[in-house]
Structure formats: C-alpha cells, structure tokens
Amino acid sequence: MTRFIYLTDTHIGANPIGFHQQPAYPEYAAEIAAALDREALKQKADFIIHGGDLIDSCCKESIQKAYELFCLSVPVYLCLGNHDLDHPDALRHWLQDAPRLFPGGKPEFELVTEVCRIHVMPNHWEEGRRYHWHKAQLPYFSEEQWLWLEAGLQQEPDKIHLLITHSPVFGMSREQSGLDRIIHDVPDDFQRSLVELVRRFPNLKAVFSGHNHLNTLTCESGAAFVTASSLVETPFEYKLIEVTETSLKMSTHSLGLPSLNGQAPQYNEQKAYAQGRLQDRQFEFHYNG
Questions:
Q1: Low-confidence residues of the chain, pLDDT below 70?
Q2: Nearest to 9 by CA among 217, 258, 214
Q3: At a CB cut-off of 8 Å and minimum separation 6, what does 56 contact?
Q4: The pLDDT value given to residue 145
Q5: What per-residue confidence (pLDDT) applies to 289?
Q6: What residue spans define the domains of the chain?
C-alpha cells in the first residue's frame, strides 16, 4: 500500500492574507507544520504532496522559510501554484533554493511506488507566459507538458495513476454551496481537456487540485476530480490518500488545533460549505486486479 497526505494553499508569508474561504492563519505556519508532522507520523504516511501556493509571493526569503518549515519527518513534494510563480524568475529560484521539493530537478516529476504512479504537473496561467503568473486566471498546459504526461500515463498501465496540478477542473456545485452559482467555475477548454484525458487513459483514476480553498469532489468518466481546502484555514484540513493494487481511497482530516498561540481559531459558519458534505470529502474505489 501507498499512503500519502495531500494538502494545499498554505500561503506562507501572507500578511495579511488575501483570498480565503475561512479565517486563515499563515502567520502560525510553524505551529501548523509541526501539527502536520505529527499527523504524518500518526497516519504512517509515506510522503506529503503540497498542491501549490506554498508561499504567498515568490521571493528568496519566503522560499527559504517555507523550505525550512516543511522539512518534516517524511518527504515533502510541491506542485507549484500561481502564487509560487508570481515572479518572472520564480522557477529558477525554486529549483535552486528548494531542490528537495522537486525530484529530478524539474517542476514536472513522477513519484513511482509499487502500486501507483503519481504525475505532478503545475499548470500555466496565461498563454505565452510559462511558469510565471502575472494576473490572468486562464489555466492550461503546454504542448511539452501534455507530451510528458501522456508518455508517463503509458508507463505501467496496469497501475493506478494519479495527477496533481494546481488549478481545479470543476468548480463547487450549487448543490454543495446552496448558492445560485458555481463557485470558482473553470474555463470550459481546461475542463474538457482533463475529462478527455481520463477517458483516453482509464488508468488515470484521480486528479487532485487546489487553488479555490474548497473541499470538492466530482466523479466523471470513471475518475475523481478533487480540490482541497487551505491547510492554514480553519479547521486546518488535509487529505489522506491510500492506494493498493486494486483500490483508491481518500478521506479528509483535521489537524485538530483547538488554539493557536493560546487563541481559539475563528470559523465562518456562513461558509461552512467550504468543508463540504460527506460525499465531497471522501471516496473509495475498487478495481479488478
């Protein structure tokens, strides 16, 4: 079995926090990372994957701080998010100053275990501007990325394959939020490209994203499309992913932090939909061996 923790959107260095769904506490990142370390050991996780926006704005000091905070008892890997890439030279800084987060020294990489292959591929945000987020929110993958991913999906097709990227594939449904609109809707072309991918490669069983700071789960064409809430927002949640040769299971857990620096974290009941219903927080799939 492979067991790993998936989390996202820690925005280390934010002061004050910008976009958020629930009250956010990036200033207590050290306490939160220590609690995460304890959870990783308790859950017997093999590694942790951070789904992006590890830091709030790219600079050498923030990268170094985050790199030190996430030096944990198990390996930690990063799928770069838009806030991680808000400097024209961001990619060079990450690969130079935080090499442990990128196996093989590249932003796209694979984690291969006995039972699964995990493809980590950060999306771009504006045509003609790669690995640099300026203002646009138009997610896409380059032709080179698609070729890299499809080559990887053809390897060991009998294994369960997972994809990690930063941009969601689906927004939050009206049924989950109770609102009259889809929260954080996604451009049709990006959504279609990922849905078509899982149709072409049925061994790709799940796509994990972040960015919207929401727990969502959409099942489409035999695959699960998941987004996760922010680890630094109350109630400080992460995903536990368990993979065997014939099954894939996801559950959502809280770090269980009743206080930060002696103060109880606040919670916005009007946005309780960010945590999701039970069906938005967990799944378990079984396949023929």
A1: 289
A2: 214
A3: 11, 12, 13, 14, 17, 18, 26, 62, 83
A4: 98
A5: 59
A6: 2-286
Distance CA 249, CA 241 (A): 6
Question: What residues pair up with 110 in beta bridges, in sequence order?
Answer: 119
- Residue (of 158, 160, 162) closest to 244 by Cα position: 160
| Residue whose C-alpha is closest to residue 240's, from 227, 232, 231, 249 | 249
First to last CA, the chain: 14
Q: Report whether 101 contacts 94 (CB < 8 A).
A: yes
Q: What is the pLDDT of residue 17?
A: 85
Cβ-proximal residues to 5 (8 Å cutoff; 6+ apart), any chain: 36, 39, 40, 43, 45, 47, 48, 49, 238, 239, 240, 241
Q: Which two tokens stand for residue 267?
A: 């919670």
pLDDT at 98: 97
Q: Residue 217's pLDDT is what? A: 98
Q: Which CATH architecture has domain 2-286?
A: 4-Layer Sandwich (3.60)
Residue 154 has what pLDDT?
Answer: 98
Category of 148 on φ-ψ map: left (φ > 0), alpha (ψ -120 to 50) or beta = alpha
SS3 141: coil
Cβ burial, residue 180 (10 Å; 0-12/13-18/19+): exposed
Please report, as a single letter, which amino acid is at residue 247: S
Q: Tell me the torsion sign for CA atoms 279, 8, 126, 177.
A: positive
Residue 204: beta bridge partners? 161
**pLDDT at 189 (0 to 100):** 97
